[in-house]
Give the backbone structure.
Amino acid sequence: MRLFGLWIWILSSVLALAAAEPASRVAVKSFDLNITESIGAPDCYAKTIRYINGKYPAPAIHVDQSDRLRVTVRNGLESEAISIHFHGIRQLGTPWYDGTSHVSQNAIPAGKEMTLEFSVKDQSGTFLYHAHNAMQELSIFGAVIINEPAEVRKTLHYDDERTIVLSDSWHNSSLAQETGLLGAPFKWVGDPQSLLTNGITLSPNCSYLPMPQGATTGGYAVTIVEPKKTYRFRIINAATLNFLRFDIPGHTMRVIEADGTLLKPTKIDHLELNAGQRYSVLITADQEAKDYWMSSQAMWRKASAQNGWSILRYSNAKTQESTPPAALPARGPEIPSWMEDQLRPLKPPRVPQQEGDTRFYNFSQVALADGTVRWQVADRVYELPDQALLLQHYNNTIKNLPAASKPVSIERGRVVDIVLQSSVGNLNGVCEEHPFHLHGHSFWDLGGGNGTWHSGIKADVNNAILRDTVTVYPYRSAYFQTPLPAGTSCGWRRIRFVADNPGAWLLHCHIVAHLVMGMAESFIVGESNIPALPPHFPIF
Ligand code: C2O
Ligand code: CU
């Protein structure tokens, strides 16, 4: 009898396991993001900062490709509404969880909460999450890491990994910045006071006040490595203005990933990454066991905060550093490496044939009659609607939107080409760099060039990298070069994507100040195929 019982038990356990197998592949991983604000001094200057679960920057989120994420965002700010966007995550089939205020949802008011739930099954690599309401990107950002499946990981040949989040930081508040940007006379945000690594650095003028327990205070981030091991450094540019170069002295970097796409390992002597971009580089700790000063510094602008230091420390280092070398090299005309054009995908990209016309987006700065300054894209200064576009789709009110806010409609499944064409505005004769980011879709980067794009320029489909943020470089007349007359073309970049994700999506410059000034376009993809809103979706 006992034996019989055991048999039944074994049999039923085996059956249960077999039945559970497919279901157990999708694990739901829950994350609580409790947003609060209090005093902190990331670069040793005391100001109000935003913490997630008491951490600045926000804690990293690690998941496997097969996981489903359930993220509860609790807005514990004093008065500001907020939303949290997972940058580069496609939200395939879940457009309402993109976390983009005015587009996929209404912002979560202070004191309220919301749960996002989505899968990441077609994506892996290095991503980030950040606030996405007005100038808030400045204040909340953290890493998102989606592990490749074990058999892919093995082929990348590294022993361990480290995450390095770079950002830029101002001493004034994001609200003050926004007021200046949108007001008359126009007041530009200026260069950041500090470049942070993993949320901290030191600036020359410290103003530590009495700090609450656990407050972030300035210092230099330390990344510890063990001798002889090879590491995958995941480097994230969470800056809101600065295009950064990142240096690790004495060590060779081999870049292997860009925005979630694996690359042919390529040796680089420094990394260049634009706001919103992420790269993985391999480095081997095969040098003298000591501390090395890593640095980040702004490119393409006249000035850079000079405090973008952090430490690479060998675990067996005999002495430890505390004072960085005197200065970073002075700003000047950049040595044009056009790093994005040097990268090659690991696997031949399967770029679809172009369909239809190329959408040509010319953008430049404009001074409006009321004394304000804006950025226009294809002759329009984009204004985000009050009520989220996606919600307006369900309410059937998109047709009533003013021209400045109307989304462009794209049929589901269309292959869309976009040329991002940068021109000198009528203001300062300067060509700027612009990091362009698309929501809901990754796109193939079909390359860029100087001057004006024309249809005779062939797209480089064989080397296209599938990514979500690309640079329109200032090929000439950057801040430190001779100004050009208004209307002169600076340069362009071409992207292609398959509009396979019905929803409402933004294409915008990832310089937050530019986005606030209107440098955006919105799309409604597959209008008649947008799935129904989940029940109880918060409207706020
Ligand atoms: Cu990283 Cu629209 O955002
Ligand atoms: Cu821009």
